[in-house]
Specification:
The chain is mostly helical and about 130 residues long. The protein is built from 4 helices and 2 strands. The protein is elongated and about 90 Å long. The protein starts with 15 loop residues before the first helix and ends in a 6-residue tail after the last strand.
């Protein structure tokens, strides 16, 4: 007795190809959910769970905003520098105002989640996902 070919999810959906596909989805969007991966690949959440926990083994962490508060003296110094630079620009003494870039040397991904669950991301145990 043999089964005729049929459509639907393959019975062996955990293979090297699907493991690589799940890895790529998580690398491209660390906010990916099981449901999103399921919709993209057409495999079951059980297979996704097996791939994530048995093959990829990432951790899921919840990002949290940590405000950095400037002291009043730091705010005042920044304001004085801005006024000084603007005055020099207005008097024609300097065009350096066009070269001012605020911030530090860090890159941040801006993401404004509505729910705590949305702020969770997959993190590779190797630190590269």
């Amino acid at each position: 007795v043999q089964d005729a070919p049929r459509s639907g999810r393959p019975s062996t959906s955990v293979n090297e190809q699907t493991v690589d596909a799940v890895r790529k989805i998580i690398e491209d969007d660390p906010h990916s959910t099981y449901r999103q991966i399921e919709n993209i690949l057409g495999i079951s959440s059980t297979a996704i769970n097996s791939i994530i926990h048995d093959y990829l083994n990432p951790g899921k962490v919840c990002a949290r905003w940590v405000p950095h508060k400037l002291t009043d003296d730091q705010k005042q110094l920044g304001l004085q520098f801005c006024h000084h630079s603007l005055k020099r620009f207005e008097e024609g003494q300097s065009r350096c105002v066009f070269g001012i870039i605020t911030g530090d040397e860090s890159w941040f991904y801006h993401y404004d989640p509505e729910l705590k669950e949305q702020s969770k991301v997959w993190m590779s145990t190797m630190g590269n996902a």
